[in-house]
């Protein structure tokens, strides 16, 4: 996920460094590949150019490379994320590093994105809602899809109510500004509550956490930190996302996975 570079925001790259140091494995990479296949199909990436906006650890850029993408361009504003991605490329893609370009920059920076090429597949999962200007970020990202190409974005679902989006915006902002000892207390309070809730609903928390890598190859503890600290934070209803992308680009929806809570809604569009 792309950090904002804002001192009042969450530095995703530090979380990704911990993920690579503590959690990365071949099994997690395989789960990331399964996630891409579920979105694009078995052979859609073969021979294609792949733009990963907000590349984070680089896990999905590597997955796209292993699934046969001809050229990878990984972009993130966070230096730690860029370092993570370069580490994966140097260690696990040594034979094709010339086909994998890793750049530090923001999707909101017009001067920076003017240098980016269009690509067959533009992928940005769980990123654009953390930029502070979500709709502009979506518009900027959509510019880079070649005719007939695919545009995949994952955007937080908007919900109202006492535990909805507006409440979490305030909590995340507080978390990022709080002294570390306070944010740690909040982290462990949240983790304890989630574990107790799983026990109450007769779900085995040990099994759930151990098998969490099946969720795109991610780590539960790293995702908890990401969720609590992910600020800036915006969200949108599926209908709002569909209308925006259709109005701006005329893209057609080919796949969507809807989250009815506060999680990520996934959209795959095809450019005409």
Textual characterization of the structure:
There is one protein chain. The chain has helices at 12-22, 26-40, 59-66, 79-92, 110-113, 134-142, 165-177, 180-200, 205-210, 220-229, 238-249, and strands at 49-53, 71-76, 100-104, 119-125, 145-156, 252-257, 264-270. It is an alpha/beta fold and 272 residues long. It has two domains: 12-159 and 235-270, Vaccinia Virus protein VP39 (Rossmann fold), CATH 3.40.50; 165-229, no CATH class. Strands 3-2-1-4-5-7-6 form a seven-stranded mixed beta sheet, sandwiched between helices. Helix 1 (12-22) runs parallel beside helix 4 and helix 6 (134-142) packs across helix 11 (238-249). The longest helix has 21 residues, at 180-200.
Strands in their spatial order, largest beta sheet? 3-2-1-4-5-7-6
Q: Main beta sheet: strand number and arrangement?
A: 7 strands, mixed
- The overall average pLDDT, rounded, is 92
Strand content: 15-25%
CATH overall fold name of the largest domain:
Rossmann fold
Helicity range: 40-55%
Query: What is the number of helices?
Result: 11
The secondary-structure class comes to alpha/beta
- How many domains comprise the coordinates? 2
- CATH architecture assignment name of the largest domain: 3-Layer(aba) Sandwich
Order of helices and strands: HHEHEHEHEHEHHHHHEE
How far is the N terminus from the C terminus?
28 Å
**Rg from Cα:** 18 Å
